[in-house]
Amino acid sequence: MGQPQEEQDNDASMEQYLRNKNLVLDFLRSDLNPHHLQYHWNKVHLLKKCYFYLKFEPRHVCVRDQNNMMIFADILQIANPCQLQKIKKVGKKQTEIQLALLTELLEQLERGREELSRYVQICDVETFLSQWDSNIKRVLKLSMFFNKLISLEEPRKLHVKHSLVSQIHLGGALHPPISFSLYTKKPPIFDRIESFACQTWAQLKWFTESQESHLERWQLEIKLVTDDTQTEPGYGRTQEVISNPCVINHLLPGRLYEFKVRRSDTHTLVYSQWHDCIILKTKTHPAEDSTILSHCQRQ
């Protein structure tokens, strides 16, 4: 003899409840896993500290020189400066939008995780199933947000209508097809063990990308730190270096110095908002140990 209809309905509802609940739990354990989301937060935080550069494809084009001879020229050597600045502004704006969107998407995913986590805690089968339609829509929307997040974590192509090369260099020829995109370089971070100060000089060392060019240029800012009670004004200077580590001379004994490091500006740099900072105290006497008093990370 078969089960009563009411029992069959209850069994079917329970099966549906378990199936739907497991679907949501799988989503929470995969894409919305807290460790997974933290990984993407870390990635976005690093992106916000990176330097964004303009990339041209191709980098070299054929143009005519003053003698009407065809030559192979670097794009930057024949670029119209005004047009290049316009393209860089587009790149900066796109980068700012990209970083803002990444933050917004991650916040949406965090909120979505909290809402779905509360939903799967519902033990009443009828209540759970009555809210299923709205929550499966939430799952689909969050899945779309997650895919969008992945696509935005890499610098993208630029869609610009500006003609980069001046007609003077083209000699009447058609403007070559040039594609523009962005790429990133990680920021230099001070090595807080290998950076130290002596009586009148300091050695500074920073971490960079694993395959950094030995010709890479760095900009160091040195500033004497004074407090409000001191009458002596602080002084500072900026210098460009190519060595890492490097030695900074002509410092005063027993004083606090703030050092900042950043990548030097280039014609293709479109965005950089962050730099690392460290404060060291020079020795009063040669025999003293140097001390790192603090470090700061500033925008």
Descriptive account of the structure:
The chain is of the alpha+beta class and 299 residues long. It has 2 domains: 8-182, no CATH class; 187-298, Sandwich (Immunoglobulin-like). The chain is built from 7 helices and 16 strands. Strands 11-10-13-15-16 form a 5-stranded antiparallel beta sheet, with no helix packed on it. A 4-stranded antiparallel beta sheet has the order 4-5-1-14. A 3-stranded antiparallel beta sheet has the order 7-8-12, with no helix packed on it. The protein is flat, with a radius of gyration of 29 Å. The model has no long low-confidence stretch (mean pLDDT 85). Residues 14-169, 185-289 form the DUF5581 domain.
Number of domains: 2
The overall pLDDT, averaged over residues, is: 85
Q: How large, in whole angstroms, is the Cα Rg?
A: 29 Å
> How many beta-strand segments?
16
Order of helices and strands: HHEEEHHHHEHEEEEEEEEEEEE
Structural class: alpha+beta
- The fraction of residues assigned to DSSP E strands is 25-35%
Poorly predicted sequence stretches spanning 5 or more consecutive residues? none
Largest sheet: 5 strands, antiparallel
Gross geometry = flat
N→C terminal distance: 76 Å
Which range best describes the helical content: under 10%, 10-25%, 25-40%, 40-55%, 55-70% or over 70%?
Answer: 25-40%
Sheet with most strands: strand arrangement: 11-10-13-15-16
Specify the number of helices.
7
InterPro entries: DUF5581_C (IPR048317), DUF5581_N (IPR049231), FNDC11 (IPR039581)
Protein name: Fibronectin type III domain containing 11
Keywords: Coiled coil
Pfam families: DUF5581 (PF17744), DUF5581_N (PF20996)
